[in-house]
Specification:
The chain is mainly α and 254 residues long. It is built from seven helices and two strands.
């Protein structure tokens, strides 16, 4: 990807993110608890998650291999962290899912499109146009920004993984009732898993210090914050006062 294409794509994606953020406050993305027949043909949720998330894992691997397969730090570390997240999201998370949920093919295809573009942009920012700070090599990892970024990344990942675990274990086998998640960060927000992911990618962006990484944070927020608001409304309608003072996605803030 050339410099002009790289920067034009980022600007276009930033503009689209604003429209997506606004639109998702009016249209609920039709997966999970908001899936409806209006979203068209759906497939098994596990298969859909693998097909939606695996492409970005493969794209990033290709970007690394096609640009010399260097193990030079810090680019290689950022690459490993990105792949760590998407390996879990592509091949472990779907296998841990319970129930017989389905995902509309339309949602899956939109996810694939974004993931591929995001992988190309992040890969280009790491291996083709890395920030000047990366020229310091391993010494960059001693910078406060890099240390903070790595720490925040793993804190966010831990919150995200624990929150997913809580959701998976809300019901016993055969139980079809709905429950309000109570453990971990669900004591503070109704979408703790989304909070964890926002924290995770903010840490990644701090480490990378690239426009593409920060654009990913913007897109993560544009997608997850409106959905967290919809989930909060849904919980309010279903559980009423039991939701208490929990916020939507950012503890004590929103």
């Amino acid at each position: 990807m050339g410099a002009d294409t790289y920067f034009m794509t980022m600007w276009a994606m930033a503009v689209i993110a604003v429209f997506v953020f606004i639109a998702l406050y009016f249209v609920k993305a039709g997966y999970g608890i908001f899936r409806t027949k209006q979203w068209g043909i759906s497939i098994n949720n596990k298969a859909a998650w693998v097909m939606m998330e695996a492409p970005v894992f493969i794209v990033m691997l290709y970007m690394w291999a096609s640009n010399g397969a260097s193990t030079a730090l810090p680019s290689f570390l950022a690459f490993l962290l990105f792949e760590l997240h998407y390996f879990q999201r592509s091949f472990i998370f779907p296998m841990l899912m319970k129930g017989k949920s389905r995902m509309p093919i339309a949602i899956m295809l939109m996810g694939i499109t974004f993931n591929v573009i995001n992988g190309l942009l992040i890969g280009t920012s790491l291996f083709v146009f890395p920030p000047s700070l990366f020229n310091e090599g391993i010494a960059y990892l001693a910078h406060p920004t890099a240390i903070l970024g790595i720490a925040i990344f793993f804190v966010g990942m831990a919150i995200n993984l624990h929150s997913d675990h809580v959701i998976r274990h809300l019901r016993q086998p055969g139980d079809t009732r709905h429950y309000l998640p109570q453990k971990g960060f669900y004591r503070y927000v109704t979408s703790a898993n989304y909070f964890g992911e926002l924290v995770e990618w903010t840490g990644f962006a701090l480490l990378c210090s690239t426009p593409a990484a920060w654009l990913f944070v913007v897109w993560t927020a544009a997608n997850l914050i409106p959905r967290a608001a919809a989930i909060h409304r849904h919980y309010r309608e279903e559980f009423g006062e039991a939701v208490g003072t929990r916020k939507r996605v950012i503890p004590f803030v929103y």
